[in-house]
Structure formats: structure tokens, C-alpha cells
Amino acid sequence: MKIETINKLCCPFDRADLTLTPIHTTVAGNVDEGYLLCGQCSRIYPIVRGIPIMNPDEYREFGLEKPLIDRWKAHLNGRSVEQFRLVADGKAG
Question: Which of 3-7, 40-44, 49-53 has the lowest mean pLDDT?
């Protein structure tokens, strides 16, 4: 995913802006792995092989995303993911 693409994306639920956290980038500077975070509803959307996964919650499987989230633990700053939302201390708000 090109960094410029983030300016064209918004949360599909509330149309709020998304914040990009790159985990791995390519030599050309494109995001190969990372996540997008909605500032409004705190939903987290993974980027896998350069493709943002922005499906509605009912079409997502947490079990498939969990290995990525476990790998990104250092980038989550002590937060965890519950119901596809980034929450503090593992507690939904």
C-alpha cells in the first residue's frame, strides 16, 4: 500500500479518518504490513501484503487476524484488540 493511499481511505463504519501504523515497509517505501486505526470507533484494520483488510465485522474472523496482532504486540503500546477494536488494558469501553 502506498503511503499516499491513506489520504483516500476512511473508516467504512463512521467515515472517520484513519491513522497508519506501518510495521514492515518495502524498499520503495510502500507499506507491506501494518494497520489502520479509526480515531472515532477504535476499529483496527490490518494491512497484509500491502492490502488493507477493511471488511465489515461480521465478515472478519478474529482467529485469522490474531497471529498478526500477536506479532504486533510491541507496536500496540500495551493495548489489545477486542471485537476488532483497539482497547487499553484488554478492557472494552
Answer: 3-7
pTM of the model: 0.85
Shortest CA distance to 60 belongs to which of 40, 81, 79, 83?
A: 83
In a domain, 30, yes or no: yes
Residue 67, domain extent: 3-88
Q: Look at strands 51-52 and 18-25 and give their pairing.
A: unpaired
Residue 67 belongs to some domain of the structure: yes
Are 86 and 44 in contact by the 8 Å Cβ rule? The answer is yes
The CA–CA distances, whole Å, from 24 to 29, 56, 67, 70 equal: 9, 25, 15, 15
